[in-house]
Structure formats: C-alpha cells, structure tokens
C-alpha cells in the first residue's frame, strides 16, 4: 500500500496589485507631511506654549522632538488602523499590508516603518526611491526593512 499524493498543482499565491503605488505614495507623503505639520502647530500653540508659560519655560524642551513624535504616532495609528493607510495614502488609493502574510500591519510595525523611512530619507534620499523604482513589487528600502508592501486598495 502506497500513499498517493495529489496530482493537482498547488495554487500560486495571488500577486498583490502594486500598479502605480510608488507615485501615489510619493505624492501622498507630501499630503501627510502637511497634515503632520498642522498637527504639530496645533500641539505647539495649544499645549507647548501655554504649559511652557505656566512652568517658566521648562516644558519648551518638547519643541525639538515634537515633529518626530507626532510623525511616529501619526503613522503608527493611521497605518495600523482599519484602513491600513495614512490619509495621504488613502487619497491616492494605496494601503500597506504585511508582505509575507498579506495581513494587517500592527501599530509597532507601522511606527517602526515610519522611523525607518525618516532615517533613510535623511541619509539616503535618492537611494530609497530608486530601490522602489527597480523592484517589480515597488517596495522601497524601509518597506523591506519593516516587512511590509504597499498595494492598491481593493
């Protein structure tokens, strides 16, 4: 008695739709940058200045790390939310998902993805975009490091 194996081929994984995501993400980034800037201004004028005045300027130390903190939380909450995209990405029909499983991105992965992005943009600006241009899946350097992929909203 022998074990028979199935003669049916295993289905290939469905390739994600990545058409146009690089352009959508790039333009969406500028939309997100404006929104993060607006949030930073609101926090600065509504919290940092009043609390700084009350504490004699002691809380004005929050000003230098304000943008990175807001960007970290903005990306973490929006990408790990139910729409899996920042408002700029949603505007251009793009969302993030885990590259291997296709599942949702957790807050921690989304926030670390943002850190990888801002650090790599600071040091490797042209290289980060060129990686996405030359890859068939349009994944940029920070996507590879975080294990995510940008896909078209379906």
Report on the architecture of this protein.
Helix 1 (21-54) crosses helix 2 and helix 2 (66-79) crosses helix 4. The chain has one domain. By secondary structure, it is mostly helical. The relative contact order is 0.16. The chain has 5 helices and 2 strands; from the N terminus they run H-H-H-E-H-H-E.
Largest sheet: 2 strands, antiparallel
Terminal CA distance reads: 48 Å
Shape by Cα distribution: elongated
Q: What oligomeric arrangement do these chains adopt?
A: single chain
- Report helical residue fraction: 55-70%
Number of spatially distinct domains: 1
Q: Key terms for this structure?
A:
154 residues; mainly alpha; two-stranded antiparallel sheet; 5 helices; 6% strand
Topology of this structure?
Elements: H1 21-54, H2 66-79, H3 87-91, E1 94-98, H4 107-134, H5 141-146, E2 148-152
Antiparallel strand pairs: 1-2
Summarize this entry quickly:
With 154 residues, the protein is mostly helical. Helix content is 56%, strand content 6%.
